[in-house]
Amino acid sequence: MNISSVVVHARSEAMEAVFHSLAAMAGVEVHAVSEVGRLIVSIECASDRETAEVFEDIQKVDGVLSASLVYSHFEPDPDSELVRC
Q: What is the pLDDT of residues 70-79, one digit of tens each?
């Protein structure tokens, strides 16, 4: 599982629409919104490729000025790992 944190800058007049668009995306959670147009967002996906696709989708949302990757961490899925005795 890939867990990433993104800071999104949006036009202030589009904040509500941007918030709802991001919140509707699979694997995306909006954690904080500032009055000056910044949103703190996390992305949780199964692979790096899926994370990159979601990140690109965020950048394409109408009203988004920029999106910056702040943190990315990959953990293997414990359910798919082979247990060795």
A: 999 988 766 6
Measured in residues, the chain has a length of 85
pTM: 0.84
Cα 4 to Cα 11, 21, 31, 50, 52, distances in angstroms: 23, 18, 13, 11, 10
Q: What is the pLDDT of residue 67?
A: 97
Pairing of strands 2-10, 38-45: antiparallel
Cβ neighbours of residue 58 closer than 8 Å, sequence gap 6 or more: 6, 8, 22, 25, 28, 41, 43, 64, 67
What is the CATH class of 11-41+48-74? alpha beta
Backbone phi, psi, residue 23, to 5°: -65, -25
For 7, the token pair is 């800071």
As a whole number of angstroms, the distance between CA 51 and CA 27 comes to: 9
